[in-house]
Amino acid sequence: MSKGKVLVAMSGGIDSTMVALMLHKQGYEVIGITMKTWDYASSGGSRKETGCCNVDSFNDARQAAVQHGFPHFILDIRDEFGDFVINNFVDEYLAGRTPNPCVMCNTHIKWRALLKRADALGCQYIATGHYANIHQHENGRYYLSKGRDETKDQSYVLWGLEQDLLSRTLLPLGNYLKSEIREMAVEYGYPELAKKSESYEICFVPDNDYRGFLKRRVEGLEEKVDGGFFVDKSGNILGKHNGYPFYTIGQRKGLVAVGHPVYVTAIDPDTNTVVLGEENDLAKTEVSIGKINWQKYDGVQDGAELLTKIRYKDKGTLGEIFNTDDGKIKVRLYSSASGIAPGQSAVFYEGNDVIGGGIIQREMPSMF
Length: 368
Prior knowledge:
single chain, 368 residues, alpha/beta, Rossmann fold, SH3 type barrels, Elongation Factor Tu (Ef-tu), domain 3, 3 domains, six-stranded antiparallel β-barrel, 26% helix
């Protein structure tokens, strides 16, 4: 007897393929779907297609579906993806921030696109190959928790999923180690998947050169931002730079020689200024966070003690959470965190559970 109908996002890689086969074996009525998000030919990059949007990946996903007797479709969401994710990516850099396009894509595009097609196909659930878990709290709310494999945990990039999405999502890999999934692929007769390399690049920047992508995407960008200055935290000019969008917080290489190591500590797009400082200038104990999405609870009280992660591989820093009058969150960390970059995500944890998350806001030094 079927456990229900589920639409599985299949990239052609090992994780999503194993999800589809696991659910099929467990008695779900599986429909596979592969989403084409980006046309590499239009990116102007120097490398060929890699990752989840090339023909080989499409064929791998379809072959697995055919072999196990469930339907598979290819869904072209290039327009949906490009209008939001890529425009947001460009706009954030032009605003002096460092975006996280994977978070934006998961939150606003992939899950919404999946749910829309799931409804059209009569599917109760959608499923992906992310390493995280979903639970329902006694208060009725759905929330994420960390995956068993700490080296692969992806709860950080899924903080933006809202309640209607979480309530219909299955994440079968949350309680598995990556090594166990590789063994499973061999057992299912897909040893080539177990050896398949994984790409950690931004999918629409296949050569991993975001500066080149910005130049190709924004006509005349180099001329528009040419002539800006590096300054120290007192405002003293240290030299000229290539344009503020081409720098990120914490960057050390490609700056200006001053006789000792310096780092990008702030970016002001209004004056085309990049502030340089010492490594200890990157350490902060306060961070402002906006565009909040709550998961486990519908908000928190002032003074709530939570762990805050400011980047994907960050172990997190304990601190107190405070609500502000403008609907944002102020985090006061018990110990300093380095390289807090505006535009990146900050995610709050209670143990292994995701309480919520948001986008780090830009706060300029007082001289600006």
